[in-house]
Design brief:
alpha+beta; about 55% helix; about 10% strand
């Protein structure tokens, strides 16, 4: 007849089973054995690398897979818990095995997930071994629920902080300081090229002082991000005006803003290619991205209108031949001297004859009746004064010399002159130039950045500013 074991022995056996199972989460970290149940583990599946939604499942699969591959994550569970704060701060260490990083979870979260995954697999084994004890099952279920919930909360918190840290530190660039300098060189090249293209447009406008009729005209309006406008009215495209127009070039974005926008733009391109959203990929600056962004910062246009008139309508001269009034005056003066000379020679003959009369009374009578009235008439027509030395012939010689001088001048005066009329022949090309500078917000909108991308830019700028390796 068999003897029954005391109930105290049963209680002791049950107590030992419970104690063994309670200790299991901590003791199983050194155990990598498999069981038949673990083969049906839902975490024992390939990781979906195309899914970037942060539900926690992929992280747990990643953790479980890491355990199967024999990584040392299990052995560092306790250390990861103690260094949670440090792990979050150093989230900039990017996994480079696949060339991309999407929602990288911190070491703390990964290791916690490994613990839960391993715990689930081994606990099921022990449950089977414990013959499905109800007390153990209930207690074990509570522990599993607690650990899973606790791990999920930590994953959410750590993931949020990690994302922020990763975006702040622009981890997708890898060697940030090196990439920053490379990006700066690309930026300077893009800025220089874009401005040179605008300058070339202005310099190409034709102007020649000796060919004003065909010279170009220019009108320009410049608008900046504050809607402040500068207007340059229509004028010839002379060098001074060209220099004034080129001096209006002024992009307001800083180099950090440019490099932060470029970084997020590259990340967005990667996300579009991979059909993901706001994931962090490994990227590198290139010339094309900066050319694209700079082109959004400063936009200019040139509309050309032909057949336009210049401002003063005096770019061309029209010549007509006209009769020269000065010639008439010269001819009149010459004829005046000639007539004065001819008439005076007749008077000189009378004066000479008068001087030959010996009788004083007869001489006076002859002067009064034949000479004096002629001299008076001559003076009223030609000159106010005259003299009578050498019978009046000395004065005649002077009159002739005056006539000769007047004649010599007359023949130098053209009978007709060219009349120049200044007109515009409407042969000008008018360049109507528009130059607009946009602010950072407008540039990001033009690049189709959503609010998260804009916040990412702000975080990246802050990271650049606080990076001691970036001067």
């Amino acid at each position: 007849m068999s003897r029954k074991k005391p109930k105290s022995h049963i209680r002791k056996w049950t107590k030992n089973v419970v104690k063994k199972i309670i200790k299991t989460p901590f003791s199983i970290t050194a155990n990598t054995e498999k069981s038949a149940v673990s083969k049906a583990n839902p975490f024992d599946q390939n990781i979906n690398k195309n899914d970037v939604s942060d539900t926690g499942t992929e992280s747990m699969r990643l953790a479980y897979t890491s355990v199967k591959k024999g990584k040392n994550a299990i052995k560092t569970v306790k250390r990861s818990v103690k260094t949670t704060q440090r792990t979050i701060k150093t989230a900039g260490n990017v996994v480079k095995s696949t060339g991309t990083v999407i929602y990288r979870t911190t070491a703390f979260t990964v290791k916690s997930t490994i613990l839960v995954s391993k715990f689930v697999g081994n606990v099921v084994v022990h449950v089977v071994a414990s013959l499905m004890n109800p007390i153990v099952i209930i207690f074990l279920g509570l522990i599993i629920v607690f650990l899973i919930c606790f791990s999920s909360i930590l994953m959410i918190i750590a993931s949020d902080d990690t994302n922020k840290s990763a975006r702040l530190n622009a981890v997708g660039l890898g060697n940030i300081s090196s990439q920053y300098q490379i990006g700066l060189e690309y930026l300077n090249t893009a800025l220089e090229n874009h401005q040179n293209n605008f300058n070339s447009l202005i310099d190409s406008m034709y102007y020649n002082y000796d060919d004003l009729t065909n010279s170009s005209l220019v009108y320009m309006e410049r608008t900046n991000s504050d809607d402040e406008k500068a207007v340059y009215e229509k004028s010839f495209s002379i060098d001074d005006r060209k220099n004034a127009l080129k001096s209006e070039w002024n992009i307001s974005l800083t180099e950090r803003e440019f490099l932060a926008i470029a970084y997020v733009y590259l990340e967005n391109e990667k996300n579009n290619t991979n059909h993901s959203e706001h994931g962090i990929y490994q990227v590198s600056y290139n010339q094309e991205v900066f050319d694209t962004i700079v082109a959004k910062c400063a936009v200019y246009s040139d509309n050309v209108y032909s057949g336009q008139k210049c401002p003063d309508e005096n770019c061309a001269s029209h010549v007509e031949m006209q009769h020269n009034p000065a010639y008439d005056e010269a001819v009149e003066a010459t004829n005046h001297f000639l007539n004065a000379y001819n008439e005076w020679t007749g008077i000189a003959d009378l004066i000479t004859y008068h001087d030959t009369i010996k009788d004083g009374a007869s001489q006076r009578a002859y002067w009064d009746s034949n000479v004096q009235w002629r001299i008076d008439n001559w003076k009223s027509v030609y000159f106010d004064s005259c003299y009578y030395s050498n019978g009046g012939w000395d004065y005649a010689d002077d009159l002739y010399s005056w006539y000769s001088a007047s004649f010599d001048y007359m023949i130098t005066v053209p009978e007709e002159t060219e009349a120049v009329a200044y007109i515009c022949e409407y042969k000008h090309d008018l360049h109507s130039v528009g130059l607009i500078f946009f602010d950072k917000e407008t540039v990001m909108n033009a690049l189709e950045f959503d609010n998260i991308s804009k916040q990412w830019v702000e975080l990246t700028e802050r990271g650049f500013e606080n990076n001691p390796n970036i001067s």
